[in-house]
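Record 1 of the preview.
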Amino acid sequence: MEPGPEIRGSASGRGGWHTHAMANAGSAPEAADPATADPVTAGPDPAARVDAWLNGAWTLAALAAAAEGRPLSREHGRLLFAAGCAEPDGDGWRLLPAYRTLLTGPSGPSAFPRRVARQLHQAADAAAGRDGHEEESDAALLAEGAASGERMGAFLDLLVERVPGFGDLLEESGLRFLDVGTGVGAIAAAVLDRVPGASAVGLDVQSRALRLAERHLAERGLGDRVELRLQDVADLSERDAYDLAWFPLAALAPDAVERALPRVREALRPGARLLTATVLRDDPAGDVREAVVRWRMSRSRITPWGPEEAARNLAAAGYRDVRCVRTPERTLTLVTARAP
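->
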């Protein structure tokens, strides 16, 4: 689940540094020229807008490079100052408090640079027409999994507040949880932490993910409460076995979702709940962020459903009592449904 911060900028895409940067060398810093800093204010000139977009990528890279308390050089600081991210500090520069908080984040200071680097690598692959896929380190996967687990804990609290009967579900003795695409097992761990006496089955098609999950769950003292399976959810054959299932649209291709939804419905007990989430909206027209996310999803073969489309498809797959729940994260919506 992931889905993160977007992009801002500095170096010219037309073969050199901007003349205003050269003119300001050695003088007091000034705010960036809006005509070359913001694609929206760059006007109708296509070259100016492209230049602003390229500057945005470089500014985001500069912000990521300032993570983990790395000192800002003179030019690094000037760029972040021009972008509104830094302020003078004696003879040097420092990030503004809001950006220091952003870079630290719940996953630690190394998560932001990794996230930015990954997205810029993906953008470079798209520009070159490559279907690139970069393996992440074990440490990165574990850190991202831990962040997902923390979010799931918050989502459970929200669902108890917003969805009638969800709190009763989490109080059931012997609750069985199905974690589709378990990754490092952090979401399963969040549910088990919340529901003493619950047990879980975690499915994944990557043996590496299951190896990390085994380690992560053992470290949290939950290894004996989670059964890990190297299995495609479309091959699930159990019936009436689970009280709650996590179904991650952001990890599944559209054809896989179509095959898997009936299997999960049959595996749920009558009245049991399925939970999924989407970072998309139902009215994306003209929204650049939405268009970027949808294109990235299509390149990664991820199911691009907004909340209403997810609700319609769940109903068509035989689920009932489908509800969309907005979260405090502006772009993320939870969708929950019940098995008949």
